[in-house]
Every structure is written in structure tokens, then in C-alpha cells.
Amino acid sequence: MKIKLHIWRQKGPSAPGKFHLYEVDDVTDDMSFLEVLDVLNEKLVAKGEEPVAFDHDCREGICGSCGAIVNGQAHGPGSKTTLCQVHMRSFKDGDVLYIEPWRATAFSIIRDLVVDRSSFDRIIQAGGYISVRTGSAQDANNLPIGKPLADQAFDAAACIGCGACVAACPNAAAMLFASAKISHLGLLPQGQPERYIRVQEMVTTMDEEGFGSCSNHEECEAACPKDISVDFIARMNRDLLLSALLTRGKEDV
Amino acid sequence: MNLDSKTPSGEIHTAWDRHKEDLRLVSPANKRTYTVVVVGSGLAGASASASLAELGYKIHCLSFHDTPRRAHSIAAQGGINAAKNYQNDDDSVWRLFYDTVKGGDFRSREYNVYRLAQVSVNIIDQCVAQGIPFAREYGGFLANRSFGGALVSRTFYARGQTGQQLLLGAYQALSAQIAAGGVIMHNWTEMLDVVVEKGQARGVIIRDLRSGKISRLAADAVVLASGGYANVFYLSTNAKKCNVTSTYRAFKRGAGFANPCYTQIHPTCIPQSGEHQSKLTLMSESLRNDGRVWVPKEKGDRRPANSILEEERDYYLERIYPTFGNLVPRDVASRAAKRVCDEGRGIGPTKYGVYLDFASAIKRLGEDTIRDRYGNLFEMYERITGENPYKVPMRIYPASHYTMGGLWVDYNLMSTIKGMFVVGEANFSDHGANRLGASALMQGLADGYFVLPYTIGNYLRRVKAGFSKTEDACFAKTEEEVTRKITRLLAVKGDKPADHFHRKLGEIIWDYCGMSRSKEGLKTALEEIPELRKAFWEEVSVPGSADSFNPSLEYAGRVADFLEFGEIMVRDALEREESCGAHFRQEYSTEDSEAKRNDEDYSHVTVWEYAGDDRAPRCHLEHLEFSYILPSQRSYK
User: Fold this and answer.
1) Does an H or E element contain B31, and which?
2) Which of B401, B432, B454 is the last residue of a domain?
3) Model pLDDT for residues A159-210, shown as the tens digit of each residue
4) By CB neighbour count within 10 A (0-12 exposed, 13-18 middle, 19+ buried), where does B23 fall?
5) B333: number of CA atoms within 13 Å, CB side?
6) Residue contact B549–A111, C-beta within 8 A
7) What residues make up the domain containing B538?
């Protein structure tokens, strides 16, 4: 099949950007979306033109590198999937696609479809961990954790940090991302000692990084390739409220 | 080349403890004065960076990704082994040691493997303390599953995303240290060379991938944690950015490269579908717990799987290997798949595929149980192939997956360059000629959390903190060579993208140095690779400039290194005139087509030393001793 691609091209963070039209012929059903960009790029490079920059790595939906808005949808058509796992059987001959980078104040554009997501790292650095030194752990089975709780913590921990939730949110909020880590650690017994200070620090950093607030559109959950539930946002808000009652400054009580 | 392995002698059970007691310590006040550069932020790199920073060392950690959490360790699916014996199935450190040495076909160091089995139990404790959501039983205790090459259930797992959860645990520990100021994280940064003077590591030359800026980083020790080189095959299960550049460029500065021909071909990957294919996708080995592998008994049987009757199917792994059945080690399963396909009994559009069938497991356990165990893998399979594996059997075929070979290291994980340590998949140390499933995560974390933090101090104690300065002449010289290489790539101005050459190299390596190798084929590869390399330097097109964000330039540099490295790999395969583990030479096989080792002549590690661009590398040997497990013909029957 033949596909028309309008792709956002932008040289750098402060350079102006615009859509460029490209056509790719001989696209087959079995090709992945990113393989179509590969084919396009090989042609551009052969002509000595700069290829379309897009982030990608594992191409099996787990590293969180890839992502773009395709015809208005984060990670393209289909639910619970990253862009690398979208295959061309989802499209038909003659389709016209508009491909843009994640757009959010907290994600500046590096080039074309590649954005800077280091703000996510800083949210994790603010408290998205359990402070435990290497080598100081007790035997793993000394801490039984009920299966339902462990499963729920896993559901939150499945986040791949791709940023689709931010891109899909009309407010460019990072609530789903932050709440996933806060819930993963806050649900588990190991995460209790730092539970309330963690939520305060991470939410503060999230706000400082320029992410918006939640107004319950739930677009983030719809866009999330790992099916992370907005219930975790509610849980985060509850913990944040509790933390105001239960902490004094940096000290948990 | 000095290949003193510094392996302890005497009783193996106490060897690591005795060795640790002999290591020299750096005082807490002095640790702050030492700087260590860690290249890579996967399981080995992130765990090493975090653990070293906790001890007080100043760490620079490099990642060519936008964040350390993208490293390819994240894609490991199935699990991590540990000798916990939580299942009461008589597992022990000894049995994990035994299985790993046997699984590696007696081509690894006994003392290294024993240590790995010992610290495996600490890894699980550490990870649970970090909050890693391992699978649990209803009673709240940890669950296990079985993996290939073992008769006990010792694999810990987190659904089909064990690598992701372990990496995020290490990433979180790293993030805590970044916040505390112990680690300076360099994202979007590629190491382009290691600075070596008089055989000693002084630091690295790095390139900021966003700005293109080249700079120098001086260090008291350098740690390479840059992963494996399976992408030499072009099509592999590795992520697209995985490459050999750090380890290969270190090789050119004097690091011995050990056993490059030991590359693992994983038996359960989704078969290739077309010529535009950019990578292959792994289906976890854990699927072989419940999936049964078969092909039709008749050659050229093109009927759909579900219309082939039970008695018309050949469950060949269960037939040939009744003891281990579908859970034979990877090398054995891969070669068996190749054999039945070569016989003309392969399935799918390319006829290079076999079925992995869950029908009997679904009948026995119900669809819900199977969904609970493998749901995400089944979804991934359906997304890629458009077929529903709950209804029709999966189609699978072997693909390049992991590399056991890597930079040579001694028992302290130090390479032949003094002060340069190598951890995780980047080194050669523990897997011998074949790696068992769920052992890569174990080794990466063992090196990073529990070995390197002890052994690196023993080296640092002997050097003066800050003895290297970026103003030293060796930095200027190395930087100039790096810049010259970049300029040369941009100056070719040919008309073919680097992909073109990478793909061709992959074809050569797969055909001649893949699952089955012969003297004749390897010699052909040794003629074709230099020709391809020559064509690359005449015809490659690298658009853009050196001083900007330029993914084409990054990639071309990596392909250039693969084009040189591929030749070393082929040479190694040619030199090893025996079959062992994943290295299968057609000339050396048993009557039933299994690998036939030659312990008399090849019970050694082959270590290659760079001798100049126009010269063949020099070959050195480290003899392997087996005092505890007598080498025997591996049998999984």
C-alpha cells in the first residue's frame, strides 16, 4: 500500500517547525510503523538529506523510548500499545497520516519527533525509590506480601516512562506517571517509611517542572500503553492530603 | 598479554570469602577523592553506579539514551535465577553452580561461576527490599518457575517483565544517588574511546549526542557496562541501539577480547516476516514451561496447524530429550529447530519456523491461568503477527539474542587494561559457551551489586586519587583520533545508508557464523567482510554535521566498528576446532548431531589482542581447570 505522511520537522528546541509531506510506497501489512519511518529515512539518507529523527530502541514496547502523536492519538491507533508495536495492518492504502512529537511545556523538542523527557527523571529523583543500601537486606521471604497487593503494586510499576500520558492530557499533566511510582512504592510494606514524604517531594517536583494539573479527562489512561489506571491518581491525591496531616516538614510521624 | 586470572585457590566454597578478606580497603574519607566513570546504565552499570556511590566514590555514569531507564536490560522477560530453594526441591548453591558450568558446556571458570551462584541469593533479597514486585503465591511468599537446563524451579519473575522491574529497581537506586550528589549522570552521552597510557586506564572521550560536543572525562578507574554485541547479526532480539563500540574501541586500546564466537541464538523468537524487518522479537523461554514444540511429521505439510492430527505431529524435543523435554537449554533447542526445518518440515510462510503450542496447557489449566502467566507475551505476539495464540499455536524460530563472549576480565572483573573493569554482558566471565535462561539478569546484578564494589577498591587503593588530568597529552591524542574518525565518516559522502552495510554484514555473519559453522564458510566470511568494509568506507552516506544532533552519524560509527569486530568473531570461530555450547562446527558433531567438545585441545578461553589495523589480531589462551565438576558430554536426554 501507499501511505502519505505529514511529519513534523524541527531542527532544534528554539527553531521553527512545520509539517513536511512524504510518500512511502510498497508498505506491507507486516511492517511496523517505525519500519515505515526506517524505509523513508533510508531513502532520505541515500539522497544525502537528513533523516527524520525519532526516538526508539527496543521495538518491543518496553523501553519507553518511542512515541509520537499519529492523527491526534498518542502512540497511534489501537489501545494499550506503544508506537513500535503498531503494525501497518491497522492502516489501508492511501491513508494520510499526521505525525507530531509529544507536545508539553515540560518536554522541549530536541529535533523532529524527539523530545526531552528528563523532567520525568527529576520526578523520580525527588523520591521515587526506597532508600536501601546494597547488601543490607533481610531474606526475601521474611516479608510476605499478599498476592492481590503485590499484583496491584505491579500494575502501577508497569509504567515505561514514555510520556504518552502527558502528551494525551489537555493540561499536559504528569499525574499518571507520578502516581504510578508513588502507588507502586506506597502500596508495598517496604515503601511505608518514606510514603508521605515521597508523595510530597514528587508532587512538588512535578509542579516545578511545568506539568499541568489533572482535570479528570482520563485521556492519560486511554493513551497509556501499559493500561495504568487513573485510580492511582486518586490514590496519590489521597496520600498527598494525608501527608499534610501526617508529616511535619521533612519528618514523617 | 598478561592473562593471570587471579582466581583463588583451595576450597571453592570459601574462595570468595577468603578473597574478599585479602582485598585492600579504601578508607571512607579517601573514597570521596576517587572518581570512577561507569559506561552504561543497564542492570550492571546502574547497580554498580548506585552501589559505588553509596560507598562514597564519585561516580560519572554515561548513557546514550535520554534517561538511564531505557537500557536494554529492560527487555528481559522471563526471570532471574537464585539458589534460594524456596520450593523445597533440593536446590542449592552447588546445584546452580553445577547447572551453570554444565549449561556453559565446560568453558567457564569454576570459581567465577561458584561465586555467581553464591551471591544469587543476595540479589533476590536486595531486589525485594527495593520494592520489586516479584510474583507471589497467595500466602504472600515468593513464587518460582522453571527454566531451561535445570531440574529445579529457581527462577524468580515479575510477570513477563522481570528485566524491566529489576532495571527500574537499579534505576531508582541510581536516581537516589543522583539526587544525593554521589552520581553525576550524563544522559545522551556516548563513550567514543577509552584513554589509556602505559596500559592503564585514565578516562574516556565522550560525545554529547545532542550538541555533538566532544569532551574528556578523567577518572581513577573506568567501568564498562555497555552490554553485548548481538547486533552484529543486524537482525537480533537486541534493541536497535545496542552496539560493540565501547568494548571494541577498548579492545583497540589493549583490552583482550575473549571468546567472541560464543553468541547465543535464542530458540523462541517470532520468525522474520519480510525484508524490511528491523529487529526480531523474543518470546520468553518461560513459555516452554507450558508450550509444546512441534512440527508436522511429513515434509512440506502445508495444512494449518489445527487441522494436523495429534498422531501426525512430531513433538521432537520431547521425543529426543525425554528427561528435559521442552526445557532443554537454548543452544540444544535452537539447533533442533534448525535441523527439522532443514529437513523440510518447517512451518509458516518462510518454512523456517516451528510451532509452540499451548493447547494442552490450556486444556489442563484453563485459559485464565495461562493468561495470568503469559498474558502480556500473548498480547505482544498477537500484535506483531495478527494471530491469536490462545487459538492457534505460536510460530517461533531461533534468533541471535545474547553474547557470552566479551572483554576478558580476571576474578576481580578487571580487564587487561589496568584500572578498566568490565561488568555484565560486556565481559566474558561466567556463562562459558552457552548461557542458561534467567542467568543474564543474575550475572549483571551480581557484578554490579556484589562483586565490583568490593574488588574495585583493591585497585584504587594502589593509585593516587586524581592521578589523571584531562590536560595530559594522552587525552589530547585520543580526542584527536576520535575527531578524525568522525570527520572521515562525514567525508565519504556516498549514496548508501549505513543500514545497507549493517544488513549485509548481518547476512554474512548469520550464514557463516550463526547457528552452524564450518571451516569453509568461515573462510568465505573472512573474505567477504573486508570487502564489505571497504565498500562502506567508499559508499556510505552520512548526512548532517558533527556538531549537532545526528543519529545517522552515531549509527554509522557503530556500524563501522561492527564491520571490524565481525572479522574477529569469525576468526575466533575458525580457531576453535570443536563444537561447544552455542558454538557448533559442522565438522565436530556426535552421531546424533550434538556438539562434540574437544577438551584435550580446547579447554581454554581464547583471548584476542589488537595488533594494528592491517594485521591479524594475536591469539592468547587462558587454560581452564575443572577440579569440582568433571567435564562430560552434556546430555539432556
Assistant:
1) helix B28-31
2) B401
3) 999 999 999 999 999 999 999 999 999 999 999 999 999 999 999 999 999 9
4) middle
5) 36
6) yes
7) 478-602
Q: How many CB pairs under 8 A join A and B?
A: 220
Q: Does residue B575 fall inside a structural domain? A: yes
B214 bridge partner residues? B207
φ, ψ of residue A122 to 5 degrees: the values are -70, -30
Sequence letter at residue B263:
T
CATH number of the domain where residue B289 is located: 3.90.700.10
Closest residue to A130, CB basis, from B129, B135, B541: B129
The alpha carbon of residue A13 is apart from the nearest alpha carbon of chain B, in Å, by 11
Find residues 269-288 of chain B whose CB sits inside 8 Å of chain A.
Answer: 273-274, 276-279, 281-282
**Residue B123 near residue B82, CB atoms below 8 Å:** yes
Which whole number is the average pLDDT over B319-328? 94
CA–CA separation, B186 and B180 (whole Å):
15
In Å, what is the CA distance from B597 to each residue of A173, B521, B584? 60, 20, 10
All residues of chain A having their beta carbon less than 8 Å from the beta carbon of residue B56 are: none
What residues contact residue B369 under an 8 Å CB cut-off, 6+ apart? none
Asked whether B343 and B299 are in contact (CB, 8 A), the reply is yes
Contacts of A114 in chain B (CB under 8 A): 549
In eight-state DSSP terms, residue B448 is: I
Instruction: Kindly state the helix (H) or strand (E) to which residue B426 belongs, with its residue range.
Output: none
Q: What is the DSSP letter of B633?
A: -
Q: Are residues B396 and B502 in the same domain?
A: no
ipTM, interface predicted TM-score of the complex:
0.97
Spatial separation of the C-alpha atoms in residues B151 and A60, rounded to whole Å:
30
Side-chain half-sphere CA neighbours of B347 within 13 A: 26
Exposure class string for A175-189: b at 16+ Cβ within 10 A, else e: bbbbbbbbbbbbbbe
Q: What is the nearest CA distance from A170 to chain B, expressed in angstroms? A: 24
* DSSP letters for chain A: --EEEEEEEESSTTS-EEEEEEEE-S--TTSBHHHHHHHHHHHHHHTTPPPPP---SSSSS-S-----EETTEETSSSSS--GGG-BGGGS-TT-EEEEE---BTTB-EEETTEE--HHHHHHHHTT-S----TT----GGGS---HHHHHHHHHHHT-----HHHHHSTT-B-HHHHHHHHHHHHHSGGGSTTHHHHHHHHHHHHHHTT-B---S--HHHHH-TT---THHHHHHHHHHHHHHHHEETTEE-
Residues A172 and A208 in one domain: yes
This prediction has a pTM of 0.97
Domain count, chain B: 2
Looking at chain B, the whole-number percentage of residues with pLDDT higher than 90 is 93
- The distance of A58 to chain B (nearest Cα, Å) reads 4
User: A195 and A92, same structural domain?
Assistant: no
SS3 B330: helix
Cell numbers for B128: 525485594
- Which residue, among B29, B34, B3, B6, has the nearest Cα to B464 in the 3D structure? B34
Using the CB atoms, write b or e for A90-119: b if 16+ within 10 Å.
ebeeeeebebbbbebebbbbbbbbbbbbbb
Do A242 and A203 meet the contact criterion of CB atoms below 8 Å apart? Answer: no
Which residue matches cell numbers 509531506? A21
* Range of the structural domain that residue A59 is part of: 3-111
Q: How many domains does chain A have?
A: 2
Average pLDDT of chain B is 96
Residues A104 and A129 in one domain: no
DSSP β-bridge partners for residue B339: none
Cβ–Cβ < 8 Å for B225, B42: yes
Q: What percent of chain A has pLDDT over 70?
A: 98
The domain that contains A84 carries what CATH number? 3.10.20.30
Q: Write the CB contacts of B27 (distance below 8 Å, at least 6 apart in sequence).
A: none
Do A97 and A133 sit in the same domain of this protein? no
